[in-house]
Structure formats: C-alpha cells, structure tokens
Design brief:
Number of helices: 5
CATH topology of the largest domain: Helix Hairpins
Shape: rod-shaped
Radius of gyration: 69 Å
CATH class of the largest domain: Mainly Alpha
Strand content: under 5%
Helix content: over 70%
CATH architecture of the largest domain: Orthogonal Bundle
Mean pLDDT: 71
CATH superfamily of the largest domain: Methyl-accepting chemotaxis protein
Low-confidence stretches: 378-452
Length: 452
C-alpha cells in the first residue's frame, strides 16, 4: 500500500472511531436523560454513563494506536533515511541500508542504497587511480632524478671531452704547422741536394778530364823517354866515331859525352816523372771511382729526399685534414655539450613537474581517504609497503652523491630550470593500484580541491 493511501486511511479510521464514540455517548446520554426523566432507576443511569466512558476511552485508544501506527510507517523510515544521508555526508559509505517496503519510503531507501553503492564504487576507483598516480609519480620522480644525475655526468664528461678536443685541436694545429715547416725544409733540402748532385756530376766530369789528361801526360813522358833513349844511342855512336877520328874528333867526343849525360839524366827524370804520373793516374782513377760512387750516392740521396719531400707533403696534407676534422669534432662536441645542458635543464623541469604531480596525487589520496568503503582496510594494508617503497625511492636520489666532475675540464654552469606548473592529477586508474606514500609537499593546486 502506498504512503498516499496509508495517510487518508489512518486519518479516516481515527476520525471514524472518534465519531462513533461521540455518537454512542450522545445516544447513551439521551437514554440516561430519558431514564432520568422517566425516573428510571439510578443504577441504569450509572451503567449507561460507565459504558459511555468506556466507549470514549476505546475510541481514544484506537486513535492513539492509529497515530502510533502512522508514526511507525512514516517517521521511522524517514529517520533511517536521514541517518543514512548523514553517514554518507560524513564519508561513511559502508553503512547497511534495508528497504523492505514498496511504498515511497521503500523507494527512497532503495535509491539511497543504490546511491551509496555507486558512490562506493566511484570512491574505490578514484582511490585506486590516485594511489596508482602517486606510485607512478614517485617512480617518475626517481627516474627523473636518476636521469638528472646521469645527464650531469654526461655534461661533465662532454665538458672534459670538449676541453680535451680543444687541446687535441691545438696539438694537431701545431703538428700541422710543424709538418708544413718540415715540408718546406724538405723542399729546401731537396733543392740543395739536387744542386749538390749537379756539382758532384761536374766534379765527376772534371775527374774524368783529369784522368784523360794524366794518360796523355803519361804518353808524352813515354815519348820523351824514347827520345832520351834514342839520344843516348846517338851520343854513344858519336863517341865511337869520335874515338875513331882520334885527335880530330876529341872535341866532338866531349860534346857527345855531354849529350849522352843529358840524355841519361833526361831518361832518369822521365822515369821519375812517369812514376809520379802513374801514381797520380792511379790516384786520379781511385778518386774518379770514389767520385762516381759519391755521384751515385748523391743521386740516391736526391731520390730519397724527393721521397721524403713527397711523404712530408702527404703528412702536411693529412695534418691539415686532421686539423679540420678535429675542429669539426670539437664543434660537434660543443653542440652536444649545449644540447646536454638543455637536456639537464629539461630533466630538472620534469623532476619538478613530477614532484608537483606526486604532491597533488598524495593530496588526492588523503582527500579520498576520508570516505570509508568496504575493503578499505585491505587497500590501506596493501598500500602501506608501497608507500614506504615510494618514500625510499624518492629519497634515494637525494641521498645519492653528486657526480664528481673531472679536474681536467672546466665546468660550465648549468642553466637553472624554471619551476614547472603542477599539472592537475588525473583520475584514470593505472595498472599499479598501490599508492606511494611520501611526506606531503606544498602543491600549487591545493586550493582547487573541493570537499564533498
């Protein structure tokens, strides 16, 4: 029976009982009056009055019973609905709601029960999503801190590499300059060696001419020796003829003797000169052989110097190419260093954003924790180890020692990263349902939350 039917029925029943009692009392009063008028007995009048009072009492009791029944059917379910609404308002979504009737109150209780179940599911999903976001943000913060440390190490290593490349570039430039100077010296030595080879060839030709002249002198000395020998024979013949002439040929004999003596001395001098000329010819021949060897050696020296000059030219060209290559590598390393510095600044921004996201996720977890749903104790128990793990994961990078910069490279200051604006937390559930508890950090978006 509907509530709209119960109220008129109960009101009609109470009014009917009261009217019936009143009518019965009036009738009994009329009968009493008639009995009094007719001078009936006093006992009959008293019994009539008593019966009237009893009927009135019964009518009043029936009215009270109807009012109590009406209160039980309307006020008590409304009080239960108000109590359930108060519990939901205070965040308790685990209260039991019973709905047995089919009237409006029963429909209201069933609607409250359905609302409580839907709110419980929504709060559970939001709690799991916020805990997953908190865990993911803690892991992102840890990864960003690790990435920041590694990026700083890369930046310091690139700075050292850039300094080393600058030193290597200067060294290669010095080597290229030295190779260029050596190439010029080799070219000068090659020209000097070529000139020396020409002079040695001229000396060889001169020694050959001296050797030919010495041979001609030896031939002339041989002719002079033959002339002296023939003169000696002629002088001997003249002496023989002078001896035959006797006194008349004595003067001629003296002249022949002198001529013979001169011829002998000329022959001896020619022999000595021939000996000297032969010795000189031998020495000239030996010197000519040595000069020939020196000429061949100078030719080899000239060829070697030419090869050295060619090699030095190749070394000079290679040194120039190396210098250009090292300069290009230095520019590339400088660009990589700048990019790494920018990456380090970006990583710091990401770390700040992840930290802000983690704080907002923790705020969301705390806000959602105000609602009590079924299975909340199991969720809290499962999230406690992950909260400790998230706290350790976030605090671990801060305790990590900073990377030591190599002493050889002059560190350039890293541009400070601007403070990232905190992104509003998303309610989408992630695969990991466990939260990452961490001491609450002041987030810029705390005033954006609304309480339920």
């Amino acid at each position: 029976m509907k509530l709209g039917q119960k109220l008129p029925l109960a009101f009609a029943l109470a009014m009917g009982l009261m009217l019936a009692g009143a009518l019965f009392g009036i009738l009994r009063l009329d009968s009493v009056i008639d009995a009094t008028a007719n001078k009936a007995s006093i006992e009959q009048a008293g019994s009539a009055i008593t019966l009237s009072v009893i009927v009135l009492l019964l009518a009043a009791a029936g009215g009270m019973a109807g009012a109590f029944w009406l209160t039980r059917q309307i006020v008590v379910p409304l009080n239960e609905a108000v109590a359930v609404a108060n519990q939901v308002a205070h965040g308790n979504l685990s209260a039991k709601i019973s709905s047995t009737g089919s009237d409006e109150i029963g429909q209201l209780m069933r609607s409250l029960q359905e609302m409580q179940a839907n709110l419980g599911k929504l709060v559970s999903n939001v709690r799991q999503g916020s805990e997953s976001v908190a865990t993911a943000s803690a892991e992102i913060a840890q990864g960003n801190n690790d990435l920041s440390a590694r990026t700083e190490q890369q930046a310091s290593a690139l700075e050292e590499t850039a300094a080393s490349m600058e030193e290597l570039s200067s060294t290669v430039k010095q080597n290229a300059d030295s190779a260029r100077q050596a190439n010029q010296l080799a070219l000068s030595a090659s020209s000097v060696a070529v000139q020396g080879g020409v002079v040695v060839n001229q000396v060889v030709d001169t020694m050959k001419g001296i050797n030919e002249a010495s041979r001609k002198i030896a031939d002339i000395i041989g002719v002079i020796d033959g002339i002296a020998f023939q003169t000696n024979i002629l002088a001997l013949n003249a002496a023989v003829e002078a001896a035959r002439a006797g006194e008349q040929g004595r003067g001629f004999a003296v002249v022949a003797s002198e001529v013979r003596s001169l011829a002998g001395r000329s022959a001896e001098a020619a022999k000595e000169i021939k000996t000297l000329i032969d010795t000189s010819v031998e020495r000239v021949s030996h010197g000519s052989a040595l000069v020939d060897q020196a000429g061949s050696t100078m030719t080899e020296v000239v060829d070697s110097i030419k090869r050295v000059t060619d090699i030095m030219g190749e070394i000079s060209a290679a040194s120039n190419e190396q210098s250009q290559g090292v300069a290009q590598v230095g520019e590339a390393v400088t660009q990589m260093d700048q990019t790494t510095q920018q990456n380090a600044a970006l990583v710091e921004e990401m770390a700040a954003a992840a930290s802000s996201l983690r704080g907002q996720a923790q705020d969301l977890v705390k806000i959602v924790s105000a609602f009590h749903v079924e299975g909340a104790a199991a969720l809290v128990a499962s999230s406690a180890p992950l909260a400790q793990q998230g706290h350790l994961a976030v605090s671990a990078p801060s305790a990590r020692s900073a990377p030591q910069a190599p002493p050889a490279a002059a560190r350039r200051p890293i541009a400070p990263a601007p403070q990232a604006k905190p992104a509003p937390p998303k309610a989408a559930a992630l695969p990991k349902p466990a939260p990452a508890a961490r001491p609450k950090a002041p987030a810029a978006g705390d005033d954006e939350w609304e309480t339920f």
